[in-house]
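Q: Convert this sequence to structure tokens.
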Amino acid sequence: MENSLMTLTYHVSDNDFTRAGEASSDVKNKLKKLGVPPDIVRKVAIAMYEGEINMVIHASGGDITVDITPDKIIMELKDVGPGIKDIEKAMQAGYSTAPDNVRSLGFGAGMGLPNMKKYSDTMEIQTVLGQGTTVTMTVNMPE
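A:
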């Protein structure tokens, strides 16, 4: 991407709750080192963590690309999972399709997509049933 300071890529493994969150943690640390304001670092870390967990729970893993530019941070989360049947419903706080075994681990409370939207400045969801979902989130840098 043009004017990119740094592009980071991560692979998220299916059902690997022990490593879930490693990508968002790495991005958080890199943003801190770049001197990004703490409130921006927090927004990016939360939005990305929620997406990362969703990929582990629902989507057989996937790939994340984070593009850091002087004016924004763009996170693209791409999976080849089942797709999202009803985006409007999935965006409702508390709605979850996570199985009981995932809920017993403390995940799947139905806050993933709502939190991703809340902690990003823009969020786009492209999904095709049976093929996968791409979520693109942007967090703007302060002027």
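The first strand starts at residue 6 and ends at 12.
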